[in-house]
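Priority: medium. Attachment 1 of 2:
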């Protein structure tokens, strides 16, 4: 089988697209590629309009099955190719778009899904949401990006190392530490004083020393779903008198200048506290990323919903228990044995790409008091119950293996492609 793959973001433009809508689809494509290469011959294209149907015609000429996987949401998936096209997408809202706007029919996902006839997504939540519109028998599979193998191997190596009281990380970029940063420039205008940081200056070599109980979250600060304000305020409130609790926020966007000013204002507002907030914007080499994982006790997610959440999956695959909600895609791998579960409630919102901002769907708002409780309980376990922490860590690894291992993805993809081939054969019969 010839498997054609495509993402709007690719190796040539990833740096400029980092943090933009749909940029993460490229990372998903990269995780899927080794598995796809076990199932067929893989060709990545950058100009699908020029390449897909020619590759398809060549494949037919050889008597070879062919499929085009577009790692894009349906409204950015072209459905006019002769080649069987399958959108591979993430979604975290209670309904899929069933309206069009700005003269673009594809904004109504029924148009694209109806044309492609099949789809791949990353969670059972999204499968249910799609089938509520497209019908209970619509061919859509839940297959998570297979990150487990790579990160579980890292976790196994980390588990063999002796326990350390502190960890040093090297990075090139911008490092902001609440204990050493003058936050006065980020207060209300009437109270501002001092000199603000140079947030858009050239990258610098920095060293970060981490100790105590480390909580880590990796996210794009411009992504409104991530709810970092509650993450910070609940942390500062819970650990106001706790000197050895640290929240590390690793930011993923090519330009975080505007976001950092807002985040620093929020860190200022939550004074005074003895806990520590660290903001990282910059490149971490693999060895230093591993050190960050090793130093981390808990990975934190306080978002309004997730299509799968690669950083959460990665840290949990390494054996780091989570603080996270039990909803959307996270419901497939979060439970009370591998995480301190944060409650959430439904709230009306708009589809994220709808410029009308019309309320047509639901998101899942984090309960702030529940987040505080999760922080408090997790800290107690980290300090006083090493056996429970060990069990949670081991269960995190096992849960993520079931959810996002290469073996799981290969089995599901193989079944999906076999079903596709069978459907095509049946369609060709008189």
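Attachment 2 of 2:
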């Amino acid at each position: 089988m010839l498997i054609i793959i495509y993402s709007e973001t690719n190796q040539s433009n990833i740096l400029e697209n980092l943090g933009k809508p749909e940029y993460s689809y490229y990372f998903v494509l990269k995780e899927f590629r080794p598995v796809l290469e076990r199932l067929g011959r893989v060709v990545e294209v950058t100009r699908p309009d020029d390449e897909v149907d020619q590759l398809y015609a060549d494949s037919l000429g050889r008597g070879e099955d062919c499929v085009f996987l577009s790692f894009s949401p349906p409204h950015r998936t072209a459905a006019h190719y002769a080649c069987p096209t399958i959108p591979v997408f993430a979604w975290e809202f209670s309904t899929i778009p069933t309206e069009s706007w700005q003269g673009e029919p594809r904004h109504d996902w029924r148009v694209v899904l109806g044309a492609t006839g099949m789809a791949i997504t990353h969670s059972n939540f999204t499968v249910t949401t799609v089938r509520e519109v497209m019908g209970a028998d619509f061919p859509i599979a839940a297959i998570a990006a297979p990150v487990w193998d790579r990160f579980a191997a890292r976790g196994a190596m980390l588990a063999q190392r002796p326990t350390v009281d502190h960890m040093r990380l090297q990075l090139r970029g911008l490092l902001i530490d609440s204990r050493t940063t003058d936050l006065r420039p980020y207060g209300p205008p009437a109270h501002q004083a001092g000199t603000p940081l140079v947030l858009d200056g050239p990258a610098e070599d920095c060293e970060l020393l981490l100790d105590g109980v480390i909580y880590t979250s990796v996210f794009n600060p411009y992504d409104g779903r991530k709810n970092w304000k509650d993450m910070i305020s609940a942390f500062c409130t819970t650990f106001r008198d706790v000197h050895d609790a640290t929240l590390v926020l690793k930011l993923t966007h090519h330009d975080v200048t505007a976001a950092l000013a807002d985040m620093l204002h929020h860190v200022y507002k939550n004074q005074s506290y003895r806990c520590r907030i660290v903001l990282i914007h910059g490149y971490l080499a693999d060895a230093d990323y591993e050190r960050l994982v090793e130093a981390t006790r808990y990975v934190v997610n306080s978002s309004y919903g997730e299509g799968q959440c690669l950083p959460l999956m990665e840290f949990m695959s390494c054996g780091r228990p989570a603080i996270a909600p039990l909803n959307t895609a996270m419901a497939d791998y979060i439970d009370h044995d591998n995480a301190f579960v944060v409650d959430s409630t439904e709230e009306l919102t708009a589809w994220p790409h709808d410029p009308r901002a019309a309320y047509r769907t639901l998101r899942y708002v984090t309960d702030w008091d529940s987040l505080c409780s999760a922080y408090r309980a997790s800290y107690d376990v980290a300090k006083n119950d090493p056996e429970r922490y060990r069990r949670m860590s081991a269960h995190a690894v096992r849960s993520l293996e079931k959810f996002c291992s290469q073996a799981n993805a290969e089995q599901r993809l193989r079944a999906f492609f076999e079903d596709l081939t069978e459907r095509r054969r049946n369609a060709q019969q008189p």
